[in-house]
From TrEMBL:
It comes from the Bacteria. The keyword Mitochondrion does not apply. This is DUF2914 domain-containing protein. Signal peptide: none annotated. The chain crosses the membrane at residues 21-40, 52-76, 88-106, 112-130, 142-160, 166-184, 196-217. Keywords: Membrane, Transmembrane, Transmembrane helix. The keyword Transmembrane applies. It comes from Peredibacter starrii. Residues 285-349 form the DUF2914 domain.
Length: 367
């Protein structure tokens, strides 16, 4: 039995040494798929603990890799046997963490700037599997690790405090920075290899934190953990047996429209935006429905702002709506913004005059 195990181990090691890139990609994808299939709610305690454990393991391996590189850590013969597999563990954990964070950011993204951030994150995730990028070694892993740590705290504090905003963001920045500072102080005190360490470790870590800082104040980073699950344009909204029912006149073939995005207005009609917005349990915050009109002379003009208090915890999201009775005919855009001014959703609509007197046959959307 022992001989068979040793034979399998040797065959795998031989295959891994000859096909390291292929095996790394497979393991990375396995980590990605594992997290996609097992990923729960962003505020799930088990998820948060699992991610903290993954980050701890990754950080420990990264510190060992740095110390081995600069010669301050020498592995025993037994340690070297385990170390030859550390890349597989690193790829699996990065695949798992980055897939989770990409999904969480994607569900909260709305503006095109946020989309660029998601593409950047996904690009870095895939770039880590390119042989030329892998040869860069430490800087890439340091960048990816700092993104993971900063993302973790960017989710953690809003969940803990029950709202988004500058205070949770800065607590996340300081916590992530403190972790990196402690790692630096506890492991890299000496003056030897200081240039290498600054170039390959310190500068990438500082760069990631600067990107997050700029990204927050330019609304580049999506407002996780808030996410619009569903949104639509309706004539009226009714609440029946705990369900919100939006009344619309959308033709059956316009499957891409959300409610009556082509709003045929008669005298007395109100334009109502109904949405469900997810936020974690015990989350109490406010979002704003900002109504923009495409003025023929002035372009997009903010016409109205409607506040909407949200409560977290419901899987399908908190339901709420805002109505506008006084409006112009033409193109409109309603942007959903968090209390710290970041866009979490939007919907476009066209208001046209309806001179018909025929009875309307409304259809229902259930939220």
């Amino acid at each position: 039995m022992v001989k068979k195990i040793l034979h399998v181990k040797n065959r795998f090691l031989e295959f891994y040494q000859h096909h390291e890139v292929l095996v790394s990609i497979i393991v990375f994808c396995a980590g990605f798929l594992f997290d996609v299939l097992t990923l729960g709610r962003i505020d799930d305690l088990l998820n948060l603990v699992q991610q903290a454990i993954y980050l701890t393991i990754l950080g420990t391996l990264l510190i060992c890799e740095i110390r081995i590189t600069i010669g301050t850590l020498a592995l025993s013969e037994r340690g070297q046997k385990f170390w030859q597999y550390h890349n597989l563990v690193v790829h699996f954990l990065f695949g798992s963490l980055l897939s989770a964070y990409t999904i969480f950011y994607y569900t909260s993204a709305s503006a095109i700037t946020s989309f660029f951030f998601i593409v950047l994150l996904a690009g870095l995730m895939l770039a880590n599997e390119v042989p030329r990028i892998q040869k860069l070694g430490l800087p890439v892993r340091v960048i990816l690790y700092n993104i993971c740590v900063m993302s973790y705290f960017a989710f953690f504090y809003p969940i803990l405090m029950g709202h988004v905003g500058a205070i949770p963001f800065w607590l996340g920045m300081m916590s992530s920075g403190t972790v990196m500072l402690l790692v630096w102080k506890l492991n890299f005190k000496g003056k030897e290899h200081v240039h290498l360490l600054r170039l390959h470790v310190l500068m990438p870590a500082v760069a990631v934190h600067l990107v997050f800082l700029i990204g927050y104040y330019t609304s580049l980073i999506p407002p996780v953990p808030v996410a619009v699950k569903k949104i639509g344009v309706y004539y009226t909204v009714e609440k029946v047996d705990g369900k919100y029912i939006g009344k619309h006149l959308r033709p059956f073939w316009k499957v891409w429209d959300k409610g009556s995005q082509e709003f045929l207005a008669r005298t007395g009609d109100k334009v109502t935006i109904l949405l469900s917005i997810f936020s974690p349990a015990r989350f109490q915050d406010q979002v704003f429905l900002k109504w923009f009109y495409d003025d023929p002379k002035r372009g997009w003009v903010l016409e109205d702002t409607i506040p909407l208090n949200i409560l977290g915890g419901r899987d399908e999201g908190f339901r709420g709506f805002g109505s506008k009775q006084f409006y112009h005919l033409g193109s409109w855009r309603v942007i959903v913004e968090t209390s710290d001014g970041r866009e979490v959703g939007r919907i476009n609509l066209e208001i046209k005059e309806d001179n018909s007197i025929e009875e309307r046959n409304y259809q229902d959307d259930i939220f």
